[in-house]
Amino acid sequence: TKAHLTLDPHFTIGAVDRRLFGSFVEHLGRCVYQGIYEPGHPSADEEGFRSDVVDLVRELGVSTIRYPGGNFVSGYRWEDGVGPVDQRPRRLDLAWHSTETNRIGLDEFANWLSHVDAELMYAINLGTRGVLEALDVLEYANIRQGTHWSDLRAANGHPEPHSIRMWCLGNEMDGPWQLGHSTADEYGSLAARAARAMRQVDPDLELVVCGSSSAQMPTFGEWERVVLEHTYDVVDYISCHAYYEPKDGDYDSFLASAVGMDRFIEAVVATADHVKAVRGSDKEMLISFDEWNVWYQSRYQNVDRITDVQSWPEAPRILEDSYSVLDAVVFGNLLISLLRHCDRVKSASLAQLVNVIAPIMTEPGGPAWRQTTFFPFAITSELATGEALELKLESPTQQTDEYGEVPLVDAVATHDAENGHTAVFLVNRSQTEAVELTIDASSLGEFSGASATTLADADMHAANTLQDPERVAPAGNDSVSVEGGVIRVVLPPVSWTAVKVK
Ligand code: AHR
Questions:
Q1: Domain Alpha-L-arabinofuranosidase C-terminal, which positions (predicted)?
Q2: How far from 475 is each of 64, 173, 376, 409, 472, CA to CA, in Å?
Q3: What is the pLDDT of residue 329?
Q4: What are the domain boundaries of the chain?
């Protein structure tokens, strides 16, 4: 089977924002406790943070980290998590039926972020709280000194403000599972009031309003329209959330999940542009795809939820999906979809970072390791710089139940005019056929060679586990050759590949 693509550095889609390589840390399961934080672990630093996890997060190449939720945030009182640790209250976490100790809060998390060199994206609670509490946490985080909350931060040992630029106005407020779930009209009105108030403190904040929890929500589309009619002038981004998993063993549809992501993004762009047109606005609404991943939600739904409210556990093992090669190929393809839309998707968060549907896993007192999904993220984050390019792709197709006829090969390329670096990211969605791909890169001018890294396995269900943490890793793809500006590479069945042009 053969496919062909042509790239030309003149045909650009848009600049690749570093914030596309963001992630998400929620107070959920073992993401914070036993994930990033485990005092007493052999690798823990004096603050109790695992340095083996810090090293892996740095290797992953994460830019911005959304915190502290997720569903958790809709019941959260941010001030529980600051001040003397021994005085912090233990609380019921209604979202995940857990007990929250509040050992880690805003100040500790901001400290941890400085170890991993990432930016904080902070979500406020608009589920059970409102404008005043949003102003309080903004004052605590960003005002230098001389006010109640900023002086309290300094007294808590943090004289420098955290200077948070990006703020999420609540989480998944369209979801019936969300504490404080409301109609688009109610939420849009509250989000607009919160945004206006926050901008009275600092007009330059970057604000994200909640879009839909998935494109399958019954209110999808209408939710975006109504919420944006309330908030268009006072927010910068609308969020998208999406999780993908195979249904009834239909791997062909699962392998085409990025087609679903493409359609989702394009529908939100169309809706935002409709609101723009109706308002006669010059402003372009951007997208923050601030939760995306493969997530075996059906597995979670089939597990007994911990229900006895008298004994909700601390940091339970929940949502600890183990990812296969197949999952990582779909995951790499989702990154391709995000890059392809980088003119409008300027921020994205892989949900989540450690233990909970995560690229990094840990054992208490034991090792930390990379899941299969770690690799496409780390490699794309490293190589995708400059601008994304429009490609001319000729690929055979296959029929899927969920998305109709889809190309077997999907691709995006990036080109960095500053240093001349070009990278092409590819997937082969076929379960049976290798694809011989030719890339006409002659428009790049002279280049001396190309190298490729491929993630594939004879067993597409292979995964990295505690027992075998290095079972799966990407490997150099020896099939690459270059002749007269044309690169040839063979893409094995169910594979993800990055080609670097030298
Ligand atoms: O990432 C897990 C959960 O998925 C988040 O808490 C929520 O926002 C979404 O439904």
A1: 290-495
A2: 28, 42, 12, 19, 9
A3: 99
A4: 2-10+388-501, 17-383
Residues 6+ apart with CB under 8 A from 415: 7, 9, 12, 386, 387, 389, 421, 422, 444
| Helix H or strand E encompassing 136 | helix 131-142
* Residue 319 alpha carbon, nearest atom of ligand 1: 2
Report the chain's mean pLDDT, rounded to a whole number.
Answer: 97
List of residues 6+ apart from 217 with CB closer than 8 A: 174, 175, 223
Pocket around ligand 1 at a 6 A CB cut-off: 26, 69-71, 171-172, 213, 291, 351-352
Residue 26 C-alpha from the chain's centroid? 12
Q: How far apart are CA 66 and CA 84, in angstroms?
A: 24
- pLDDT tens-place string over residues 280-324: 999 999 999 999 999 999 887 766 666 788 989 999 999 999 999
- CATH superfamily for domain 2-10+388-501: Golgi alpha-mannosidase II (2.60.40.1180)
Residues of the chain with pLDDT under 50: none
- Find the 288 Cα to ligand 1 centroid distance in Å: 15
The C-alpha atoms of residue 476 and residue 149 are separated, in whole angstroms, by 53
**Helix or strand holding residue 208 (H, E):** strand 206-209
Angle at 479 between CA 477 and CA 483, to 5 degrees: 125
- In this structure, the strands spanning 119-124 and 166-169 are parallel
Distance, first Cα to last Cα, the chain: 26
Provide the 10 A C-beta neighbour count for residue 286. Answer: 19
Q: Going by CATH, does the domain composed of 17-383 fall within 3.20.20.80? A: yes
- Our answer to whether residue 266 is catalytic in this structure is no
Residue type, 52: D
Nearest atom of ligand 1 to the alpha carbon of 293: 1
What tokens appear for 459 in the block? 């067993």
Cis, peptide link before residue 371, omega less than 30° from 0: no
**Does ipTM top 0.90?**
yes
Integer Cα distance of 15 and 433 in angstroms: 34
φ, ψ of residue 201 in degrees (nearest 5):
-80, -45
Q: Can you tell me the distance from the alpha carbon of 441 to that of 463, in angstroms, rounded to the nearest whole number?
A: 34
For the purposes of burial, counting CB atoms within 10 Å of the CB of 476, is it exposed (0-12), middle (13-18) or buried (19 or more)? exposed
Which two structure tokens, joined as six digits, stand for 342? Answer: 């980088």
